[in-house]
Amino acid sequence: PPPPPQQAGGPSGAGGGADARLVLEKCTACMNKAEEVVLRSPQLLNASLSSLPQGHDLAQLIMQARLLVAQSPAREEAGVAYAQKLCRRLYDGGKFARCQLGVEWITASLASINDVAKRVSKEVTTWIAFSDNDRRLNKDMTVALVNSRVLQLNSPDYVREMVKLMDMGRNQPAVDFFVGLLSHSLVDKRAITTADCVGLLEALTKIAQATRGKPSDPVIRLLEEARGLARSGAQAVPQPGVDAKAKQMLAGAAPPQAAQAGKAKEAPDPPGLREQVQFALEKWVLQIQSNDDRGVLQFMQNLLDQGWLKGDDITDRFFRISVEVCADRCTQQLADASMQGIAYVQIDALSKLVLMLVRYLEEWNRSTTLTKQSLLNKALATTVRVMHAHHKERKTAFNQKPFHRLLMRLLLDLTDAMPEAMIFSFADALQACQPRLVSGFSFAWLELVSHRSLMPRLLHAKASKGWTAFHRLMISLFKYMEPYLRNADTPEPIKLLYKGTLRVLLVLLHDFPEFLCEYHFSFCDAIPPSCIQLRNLILSAFPRQMVLPDPFTPQLNIDLLPEITKPPAILSPFTQALAASPLRPELDKFLKGRGANAFLSSLQQHLLLPSQAETAAAGTRYNTPLINSLVLYTAAHAISQNAATGGPQGGKDAVTRGPSMEVLRKLCRDLDTEGRYLMLNAIANQLRFPNSHTHYFSCVLLALFQQASDHLIEREQITRVLIERLIVNKPHPWGLLITFIELIKNPTYDLWRHDFVRSSREIEQLFQSVARFCLTQHSGGQGGAAGEEAGMTAAKG
Fold it and tell me: Which parts of the chain have pLDDT scores under 70?
């Protein structure tokens, strides 16, 4: 086989060669440093690059090497030489190349270098094509190179050599390898499109035809799925890697181009096609207005006869032109007051056409490769693509109404035709046009997401399959609004969107409380601390079969509640941020009683964001998701340990001793006011319905308040976190009420004798108002001044 990728571009001058060698030395130092970082931290061996915090050392090293190559006068020569080093390291069998993070780092580095040295991908592909079979058929490495878009499967050299290798199906291990490769990267991960692997798909098709009657099931299944993807117009999904912000921060003006790799430009439409489609649509509008079923079927047969619905490229063009024509006509008519009454006629007709095609598919499916599912996917994908194009071109002049109407009509019309498959297709389409991608569609998007034909169907899907899809949609919404809400920068459109979000959460709280209960952690992660009412709505949810004890019941002893020993179900991956941090191994050792006290001393530094760019983007110096993860993980460890040993799961005995409480106490005492506030918020986020977590964290807050004898600011911040969640409109989480009532009622905590309660007349009146609300109900509903006086007397001891 030929050697690894060679230096590009022929002989260069002495200056260029010397510069390339110097750049190669510096880039190689980055690679060696990355290997050292990974191998000296055992917890990183099984981590993934996408799970690392933004600005991590490994991401910095990738971008440093990229910058070195980009600024070199001999850019191509230096880039290819460094790619050669990376490829050798990838296949050398060392420990770095055997761990997941090592492979991801090397392939991400290759992709990053390929952005600025275009010959890298070609050279790497050629080298792999002519390597020995151990390298060509190494699935893990090949998948990583394909997913990072470094290995180009459509390269003529690669296709030719791989076709020889498969030997028309006689080399079964090679056939199995490529079937597995394409099943993973094309079908499962969608890292590539069918256009990126046409040569291999054609080779497998010929193998299936040559072995007709006995082709392997995996080959047939792969080819069918590939045809379905091609017909639906599925796009490649960007794979996790180095975050875009890190690229922009370190690579200057060089934009990331990996996401654009392999995206073929669509050829111009055949002459006259747009006019033909427009004429057909106008004819269809007249046809459905005539209410002639026979004529409707004849029209669809004409579409088939013209070759527009075979499921090929012409079908894609037919749907795209149809959406463009209908959207443009609708926009024009909406702008004309005299035409607004008929503005949606063509949009509704297009939806009707898709419905009829789906409904009568069995009668003409011999004339097409389309299925009901792929037909719907094609219609939705086309609508989303046209929407993206209009939004990009028209910017503030973008009109969301045509696309809202089309998606709404499709949703309503197809509800009965294909209920189960439809909801997931619509969820995927809405994820592709989420507010962060198409901000001008935000209001229509929220209405569609919360519509009675979509949201309940997703959340009622069998085995909770729809929960994941709807959770993803809600997280997208929260992440879009987060910068505005965090900075109190709420223009009128954002205020309206926020009100709409509150209403959606109220519906979820009433009809699907378990969904909010089990995803509360990731929702609170995405919501800024300032959005107290939004968070309260989520944290107030409790399972429908549970009857909440009245928190105002006199002498209520929560230790005796049967639910208080049961842990809550949590579907959010709450350990994810902690698992990506070097903090996790040392924390585990400490919680198991084998760690050193030095761990507590360095704890605060681990919670800080590593760069100023990340601090500016997050609006805080602290890694808030890591703090949330650390607090819940620490408590869960203590609760499970107490349960395993038969000890108490709550109360002072459980929280005032043990390594978990030491960690929480250390954080509360050593963090500054900003960090402490975030940490106390993480604790308050777990004060929900009766369960072991609520019990534990309630006791933790009260214990921290009691033990802060020399730290008045701690008590003030604990009180602030509780009271600011109570002064907003209802609902209030049950655990929050229980904790605050205990704080103001129990003379042990002596709340009313602290100066911060009476720091100003307004603050004192606020405390009295909240205490009066809690304690007059607690005192059995005494009315008027007598009830208020009894409540305040009890509060002040």
Answer: 1-18, 43, 45, 53-55, 211-217, 230-266, 364-367, 417-419, 421, 463, 489, 595-596, 644-656, 709-711, 773-797
Contact (CB, 8 A) for 179 and 139: no
* CA 405 – CA 384 distance, rounded (Å): 13
Nearest-angstrom CA–CA distance, 752 and 742: 13
In angstroms, rounded to a whole number, what is the distance separating the alpha carbons of residues 765 and 459?
44
Phi, psi of 351 (to 5 degrees): -60, -40
Q: How many other CB atoms are there within 10 angstroms of residue 377's CB atom? A: 22
pTM above 0.90, yes or no: no
What's the helix, strand, coil split of the chain in %, to 5? 70, 0, 30
Tokens of 416: 């009965």
> Which residues fall within 8 angstroms of residue 34, CB to CB, at 6 or more apart?
57, 58, 61, 62, 105
- HEC sequence for 283-309: HHHHHHHCCCHHHHHHHHHHHHHCCCC
Is residue 91 classed as helix, strand or coil in its secondary structure? coil
pLDDT at residue number 677: 95
Residue count of the chain: 797
Distance separating alpha carbons of residues 283 and 353, to the nearest angstrom:
12
Backbone angles phi, psi at 199, to 5 degrees: -60, -45
**74, 12 Cβ separation under 8 angstroms:** yes
Q: Is 325 helix (H, G, I), strand (E, B) or coil?
A: helix
Q: What is the pLDDT of residue 6?
A: 35
- SS3 assignment, position 193: coil
Which pair of structure tokens corresponds to residue 500? 């709409």
Q: What is the DSSP string of 447-472?
A: HHHT-TTTHHHHHTSGGGHHHHHHHH
Q: What are phi and psi of 779, to 5 degrees?
A: -85, 15
Q: What is the pLDDT of residue 321?
A: 93
User: What's the pLDDT score for residue 775?
Assistant: 62
Cα maximum dimension of the chain: 97
